[in-house]
Amino acid sequence: MKIHQRNLPRVVIIGGGFGGLEAAKALGKVDVRVTLLDRNNHHLFQPLLYQVATAALSPADIAEPLRHILRKQENAEVILGEA
Length: 83
Prior knowledge:
Blueprint: E1 10-14, H1 18-26, E2 33-38, E3 42-44, H2 49-53, E4 63-65, H3 66-69, E5 76-80
Parallel strand pairs: 1-2, 2-5
Antiparallel strand pairs: 3-4
């Protein structure tokens, strides 16, 4: 989280898949603190897994760090862990 937001309500999103990331992004302009919890440090774009399996892409090509995806969102933080 880039700014100090002590008195704002906190929204905890469990999972950094498509739904979790879209929820976090949708809350980007809302006066809340967003915490995204995931066991992995990256979002895996699963529709392209078949291209990794056929060696058309490397695994790094379909994975993006969660913190990088939300880097411009001042009210968001990513925590690695399990719920």
